[in-house]
Amino acid sequence: TKNILLSLGLGVLSASVIATDGHILQAFSLVLNHLKNSLLDSDNLYGYGFVLIVGIVVVLLNQTGGTVALARLMTSRLKTVKSAKYAAVLLSCCFFIDDYLSCLTVGHIMRPITDRLQIPKVKLAFILASIPAPLAIIAPISSWVGVIVSQFDQAGINLHAGAGQTGQLVAADPYNIFLQVIPFVFYSFIMLASIWFIIYQEISFGLMHKHETIAAATGNLFGGQAPIRSTDEHELSSLVGSLTDFLFPILSLIALIFIGILYQGNYWLFGGTQTSIVAIFQQKYSLFPILFFAVSGSLILSILLALWRNKLSFNQLPKIFKDGINLMVTAIFILIIAALFGAILRDNLQTGFYLASLLLSHIDLIFLPAMIFVVSFLVAAATGSAWGTMAVVTPLTVPMIVALLQLQIPVSGAAIAILLPSLGAILAGAAAGDHFSPVSGVTVMSANSSGAYLIDHIKTQMFYATPAIIGTLVAYIISGILFKFSLFGNVLCSFTAGTAVCFVMLLVLSRIYRGKF
Q1: Are 185 and 435 in contact (CB under 8 A)?
Q2: How far apart, in whole angstroms, are the C-alpha atoms of residue 137 and residue 472?
Q3: How far is CA 408 from CA 394, 403, 420, in A?
Q4: Residues 258-267: contacts with CB within 8 Å, 24+ apart?
Q5: How far apart are the C-alpha atoms of 186 and 137, rounded to whole Å?
């Protein structure tokens, strides 16, 4: 249909009808119940509020000239297409703490620069979507860490017997296990290497090549389609601003997020008992309220600063708020329907549990990491939820490994050589599926912040992510074969082979698939 809202709506309708065995009224009731639960969920509301207020901040940055000042500064230094793409990658890495924050912020920062250099919207969207989740999932400090550590704990990796849903199976600190798992999250490293290789070698094929060819020939950044007009567009020559107008909202947002995490983590500076910042990030907490209040505080402080510096007046505020909300309202609707679709697949059709039980029921130990990666990828791609995938696959994986090895529990983490590659495969599959999924929040947000058509972004992203996914699968096959070898040798051989496969596929596709779109 080339209409993402209609497509998602039909997906919700068909999934609900299947879940209720064809009873239309029950299907309608099911959709309403999920919609009500979604809209009443505090995390979702905070998340939607965060997205809306980010839109207002973006418009404010344009109104005060902050975005223009940064764009002029970067344009004077970024003279080539390559340098602009590398800048987008570097900025995305700087916002590793949260995937949504990275997509929304970097997209709106880089868009004026990539537009001037005639980089198509889908190329910027691909870069924005490819870094946040793979980077956040391997960062020792990020919004993902608490969720990952909590899932390990509940699956039986802990130091206190009976604490998890399956008791104590592996006697180890879950955060320390997570740190050891990081080198085995091959998708993150292969995807990051893939992006660098794509930019360095100027890899271009398929629909992406069509968009790049049209952009270079005509200046149309939408693959020949009608441009999406955004309320935050502006001419660089029409506004005057300074870097202060840009840096203050961004730095105050980051500072308030960090303060909010410390406050919620009961840090001693706020009258709590916790003295370790690392320990705070090990805890399971929701980042969405922190993001919402941080961006709200940043908006208020930025407005006050702009008023004090005579960069705007009170009369301009209603239009800024209106334009900011309009900027994000379509993305909010897509997020709501995508979450609704994922919830029905997850809770009613039990897609994740079905795939996991089907594919993991009979398997040789050496192929376990590869199969776990496939299962996690399929679950995440189908549901659009990396965190939901971890919640489904992790509790199945840890007990299964202990049972397959016929070990006396609780067992030391060091005694299970296959454990680290298997846990790494869960995280890698979750990140890869989230990146690949057409209904994930990161996919929607990256298309929105880059200004790309969502359908085009989905099509181009799938082709460009596939070599990294196949390379990662190869890496886990080798890792399973070498699981009895040293950890360093295992990681080195597996990563090298997977990256080589990814690079070769990209080169071959770039040569044979350039003219086909």
Answers
A1: no
A2: 15
A3: 20, 9, 19
A4: 259/294, 260/289, 260/290, 260/293, 260/294, 261/285, 261/287, 261/290, 264/289, 264/290
A5: 11
Q: Distance between CA atoms of 204 and 507, rounded to whole angstroms?
A: 9
Do the beta carbons of residue 88 and residue 127 sit within 8 Å?
A: yes
**Model confidence at 393: pLDDT above 70:** yes
Give the distance, in angstroms, between the CA of residue 262 and the centroid of all CA atoms in the same chain.
Answer: 23
The rounded Cα 140 to chain-centroid distance in angstroms is 16
CA-to-CA distance for 68 and 472, rounded, in angstroms? 40
Predicted local distance difference test score (pLDDT) of residue 201: 92
Highest mean pLDDT among 87-101, 114-128, 265-279: 114-128
Contact yes or no for 225/49 (Cβ under 8 A): no
Q: Which two tokens stand for residue 472?
A: 């990662």
* Three-class HEC string of 169-205: CEECCHHHHHHHHHHHCHHHHHHHHHHHHHHHCCCCC
Dihedral through CA 200, CA 206, CA 210, CA 212, nearest 10? Answer: -10
Record the pTM.
Answer: 0.75
Burial (CB count within 10 angstroms: exposed 0-12, middle 13-18, buried 19+), residue 308:
exposed
Contact 61, 67 (CB under 8 A): yes
Taking the C-alpha atoms of residue 187 and residue 184, their distance in angstroms, rounded to an integer, is 9
Output the 3-class SS for 301-347: HHHHHHHHCCCCCHHHHHHHHHHHHHHHHHHHHHHHHHHHHHHHHHH
Three-state secondary structure call for residue 267: strand
Distance CA 473, CA 424 (A): 12
Q: Pick from 293, 295, 247: which is nearest to 55 by CA?
A: 295
pLDDT band for 505, please (50, 70, 90 cuts): very high
- Percent of the chain at pLDDT > 90 equals 25
